[in-house]
Prior knowledge:
- By secondary structure, this protein is of the alpha/beta class.
- The chain has helices at residues 49-68, 71-87, 89-100, 104-124, 163-175, 188-201, 215-227, 240-249, 275-287, 307-319, 339-354, 387-390, 406-414, 429-438, and strands at residues 15-17, 20-22, 29-34, 39-45, 131-133, 141-148, 151-155, 178-182, 208-210, 231-237, 256-260, 265-269, 297-303, 358-361, 377-380, 397-403, 421-425, 443-446, 465-466, 479-486.
- A 7-stranded mixed sheet has the order 14-15-16-13-12-17-18, with helices on both faces. A 6-stranded mixed sheet has the order 9-8-7-10-11-19, sandwiched between helices.
- Strand 8 (178-182), helix 6 (188-201) and strand 9 form a beta-alpha-beta unit.
- Helix 9 (275-287) packs across helix 10 (307-319).
- 53% of the residues are buried.
- Residues 159-160, 237, 260, 293-295, 452, 458 line the site of succinic acid.
Amino acid sequence: MTLQxxxxxLLRTQNLIGGKWVDxxxxxxxxxxxxxxxxxxxxxANSSSVDARAATDAAARALPAWRDRLPRERAxxxxxxxxxxxxxxxxxxxxxxxxxxxxxxxxxxxxxYGASYVAWFADEATKIYGDIIPQHQRGKRMSxxxxxxxxxxxxxxxxxxxxxxxxxxxxxxxxxxxxxxKPAEDTPLTALALAALAHEAGVPEGVLNMITAAREDGIxxxxxxxxxxxxxxxxxxxxxxxxxxxxxxxxxxxxxLSLELGGNAPFIVFEDADLDAAVTGLMAAKFRNGGQTxxxxxxxxxxxxxxxxxxxxxxxxVSALRVGPANDPQSQIxxxxxxxxxxxxxxxxDDAVAQGAHALVGGKRLEALGPNYxxxxxxxxxxxxxxxxCEETFGPVAPLFPFDxxxxxxxxxxxxxxxxAAYFYTQNLRRxxxxxxxxxxxxxxxxxxxxxxxAAPFGGVKESGYGREGSKYGLDDYLTIKxxxxxxxx
Length: 490
Ligand code: SIN
C-alpha cells in the first residue's frame, strides 16, 4: 500500500502547538510503521515534557477567549470540522489503514463513526442549560450554571485512531474547554490530519494542541500534564494498568478523570437463542477491527444443548473471512497492530490448545502474508483456567466455553474485574429482563452485536473505568456545576 493522498498537506509529522506546526524541542523523531510489513511510513515528532508544557501553555492562553465564545459559535466551528472530515474521508481512511492496518472499508466506516461524534457535540454545545433552584428562604435567589472544566488532556488509543480522539476532543471543545492531546504512538498520522482539519475549520490557535511521542517518551511527556494544576481533566482510553497509573499520578492535583479501560466482554448464547442471529451478532462484535476493540467479546459462553451446532455455524462463517492487506478491497481482516500484539495472541491460543482447546478454525500465524497476520480462529472446549479467559486477547480469536445453567453463566460472566460490554442472545423476554439486570457492565447488547453509537452513553463499571462518552451524558464530564446564591433581594 502506498501513501498517496489527494491533499498532501494532511500528512503532518510535527506537533501542533498554539496553532503552529513545530518539531519536538529536541528535534527528535520516531518511526511510524505499517503493521502489514513493519516498514516505516514516516518519522514524526518524538516529544518530551518540554513540548507537553508548551502545549499546556498554549491551551492556557487560549482558554479565556474560547470559554467566552457563544455556544452557537463553537457549534458552527464543530460543524465545519464535521464537513471537512466527511469531505476528506478517503485521505483520512488511507492514513488510518496505513498505520493501523484495518481494511479500507472499515477505515471509511470509522471516519463516518468519528464524524458522527463531531456532529453530535456540535448540537450538544447549544444545549448546556443550568437551573433556577426553588428558593429555600425569602430574599435569596439560587441558581446552578454549568461551566467548562478548563484544560483537558486527551490520551487516545491506536485501535480507533480517529473515532476515539474525536469523541474526546469534540465534547471538550463544545463545553468551552481547550485541549492538549497525545494520540497513541502507533497511530499519530490520522490524529494529526484530524487536527489539521480542525485548524482549517476555524478552531482558534491554542484551543487544540497535539503532540506525538514514542512509548517511553510519551509516558514522560504525559507526566507533565498529570502534575500540572492547570490541566483540570484527563480523558483516556486504553489499558486498565495505564488508567490506574493516570489516576494515581494525577491525584496530586485532583483532576477530573474519564477512563475507558479494558473489557474482557462475555457473549452468552442461551439455548433458546436465534442461532443465525447470534452468529451474525458475534461476527460483527468479535471480528470488528480484527478483534482489537475494548468491546469485542473475549469469552463466548454457549449453552451445551446448542454448542455443537453453534460452533459449526460459526466455524463456517469464520473460515470464509478474507485476511489481507488494508488496500485489498476483498480484505475483511488486516494485520494486528504490532509484534507485541501478535505474540500475545499466539501465546493465548497456544496456552489454550496445550490445556485441551481444539482449534476448529485457524489457530496459527499467517506469515506468508506478513509479520503481523493471525488467522481468524474458533477454539472449542475453552475453560476458565486458560489465559484467554482472564486476559483480553485483542485479536481475531473466538473461544467457545460450554455452560448448562443461567445462574452459573451469569456468575461466570461477572467473574472478572472488568465491566465494559456484555452481550447475550435469547428469545425469552423474562430472561432478557433478568439477565440484563444482573450483568455487571456499562454497555449491554441484547440480541445485538453492534452497540456503538454517538447517541449512546459509552463507558464501563468496575475496573473498566468511569465516565461516559457520547450521548447527552457525554458533555457532563467536561463541565462543572457552579451554584450561585444571591441574597438581600427582599
Ligand atoms: C473501544 O474499543 O475502545 C471503542 C469501541 C467503540 O467505540 O465501539
